[in-house]
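Reopening closed ticket. The problem is back. First fold of the pair:
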Amino acid sequence: MNYENTLAFTKQMDADDPLKHFREQFYIPVINGRESIYFTGNSLGLQPKTTQDYVVDELEDWANFGVEGHFHSTHPWFSYHERFPGLLADIIGGLPEEIVVMNQLTVNLHLLMTTFYRPGTERYKIICEAKAFPSDQYAIESQVRLHGLNPDEAIIEVSPREGAHCLRTDDIVTAIQQHGKSVALVLFGGINYYTGQVFDMQAIAEAAHTVGAYCGFDLAHAAGNIELKMHDWNVDFACWCSYKYLNSGPGGVAGAFIHQKHITDTALPRLAGWWGYDKATRFQMDKGFRPIPTAEGWQLSNAPVLSMAAHKAALDIFEDAGMENILAKGKLLSNYLLFILDEINNGLDEKMIEVITPRTESERGCQVSMLMLQKGEAVFEALKQHSVLADWREPNVIRVAPVPLYNTFRDVFTFGQIVKAILTTS
């Protein structure tokens, strides 16, 4: 597509956008007296206007039914979690029986590592990305220590080459091959939170399996953002949060994927809970854990219904919009943002912005990370004064993420105009 850095171009793009009406279904924060340009959906997605109704419905059933709401409310709480696998199947790229909504992201990561990280004398290493999101780093380190191992010996971090910001798939695969039979688990984020790089999950999973290791992914920045095919890529497990691109509220309920080849294997170790027990005999309260033969078998406790109600409101919008349409617009928005940033750099006496997010479409989602070579903090603070919500990451990166469901091409254009004005003002 031939992009143009003009208001007229963005008006036409927004007019032709098949998802344009979905913006009206979200609350857009008002900052400094005007509707903001909200580019932080990669951190916390906006609230759908239906969320309050969905949550209030459950509050009313709680008020009217009390404990009987577990079975007699409009949407019985006993089976409330069963509403989600079908809605998430296209988003995660998994079969419904491979998906369960439960807990929080890092809780799920620990639960899944309990199953899929079983170090032995020879096979005990975990291969991951260097400078992964801290939650993943801490989870991996604590799991290694839990097994009495030294993190400095058991954790192998793969770093970008000198002078580079992003990892090469070849380097990840090479690291897996080099450590070979000593690798127990390969665990990466689907997208690096800092650079916005999308990893080749299929290639990584294949490399892990070739050396006999399990492979899992943290999809916090990937779910609802990029095309995922967890089942087809033969990924062993994955987990994600729902409050970023999935717009399900701060600290919202999370999700997990366990591949079909594992879900009926009762020999796999796990931390068991009542809600993962066979549904037909759950209330007989017998000793001896008998897991549900789906991803539900990894559940611990009954559903957090109020949080799940907010999740349902958001996922209904995804189903209405269609994941294919969301992905298509996401590519157009990020491509246009890159075009605008290049226009800004080309118009300056010296380069002030280095984009550290990959240019290749398959290697990025909505997020574009701007390494500010000059005036970084000044630009970030000025953006807020101009009603733009972006995200700062030390030492000098501004992350912006135009989200297909509620951001527009005009948002991107206006953002570019603001950044240009800030950088050209002495």
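Second fold of the pair, where the issue appears:
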Amino acid sequence: MQFENTLAFAQSIDQVDPLRSFRDKFHFPTFHKNEVRYFTGNSLGLQPKSTSNYIQEELDDWARFGVEGHFLAKRPWFSYHENLTEKVAKIVGAKPIEVVVTHSLTTNLHLLMVSFYRPQGKKTKILCEAKAFPSDQYALESQVKFHGLSNEHLVEFGPREGEQLIRIEDILSKIEELGDELALVMIGGVNYYTGQLFDMETITKAGHKAGAIVGFDLAHAAGNINLRLHEWGVDFAAWCGYKYLNSSPGGVSGMFVHERHANNPDLPRFAGWWGYNKEKRFLMEPGFQPMPGAEGWQLSNAPVLGMAAHLAAVDIFDEAGMEAIGAKRDLMTAYLEFVIDSISERNKDKCTFELITPKDKNQRGAQLSIMALGQGKALFDALSDLGVVADWREPNVIRVAPAPLYNSFEDCWWFGHLLEKAIQ
């Protein structure tokens, strides 16, 4: 498609967008004096208009039934998480037995690493990306210390000097170098800073060849990337629900455990009664008997109100389908890149923009990270004052994430128009 940086062109693409009606399913912020152009679905997705109804149903059933809502509610709370399983499995490319929605992201990562990071002998090293999201760094550091080891057992890889992106060959080389010292590969599927998508299938194969377990934090990938976790053979993964999945601030998290681990009760874990064999759960017997699959990593009973918000969101994903979402993501992100390049060329005497996200659509999702050269935070502040909600990362990067379910091509044009105005 031959792009044009005009409002009329952007509106013409919107007219033929098969997902255009989904925009009306979301609330857009109204706090600003100008119309808000929202590009931070990679930090917090917009609220579906249906969310309040889904939550109200549970509040009404709580009022009507009290504790009996566990069995008499429209969606019985005893098995509430099961309403999410198949839909979430489709989003991440998994079998239903391999996924469960529960807890929060870092909690789930810790629970999974308790089971899958088992340092023994010289096989003690964890391989991760340098400058991962801080929560991941803290979790990995604490896991190493929990096993009585030092941070020397936490091995990082990063971009080469003078580069922004991490080369896949450098990751594979580091896996091979560590060899039989490598216990776990645990990285983010999409780098939160650059928006780089890692080749999870290739990394998983290399990690397994070295005899290591491979897991991913998919906070910036779930609902954004067309994932195939089962097919790729990933051992475990976890993701939050509040970014691309639009499921409320600090909302519930999902976890994936490959089915080859589904029926292994000998895997060490921190157990809780909601992960116990549900046929016998209320017998309150001693001796933990985990449910098969990812459900066996649950601890406490379902946080129903948070799960109701999540169900409202994943029902929209189920209606739209990840294939259609992915197709629009690639086209819209390419158009936004074109618009930014046009603005940069026209204003190169004042400010230029360097895209530090890969240009190859197979190596990125919806996020574009733009390095502003020539102007600093004042440019971002001016852009915000014009009604654009984006994200600033020091020292000079603007992160922009057009979400296919609710952003439009016209939004992308307006971003460029307002960016140029902010430069002035």
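Update: turned out to be a display glitch only; the data is intact. The first strand starts at residue 37 and ends at 38. The chain has 13 helices and 13 strands. Please close again.
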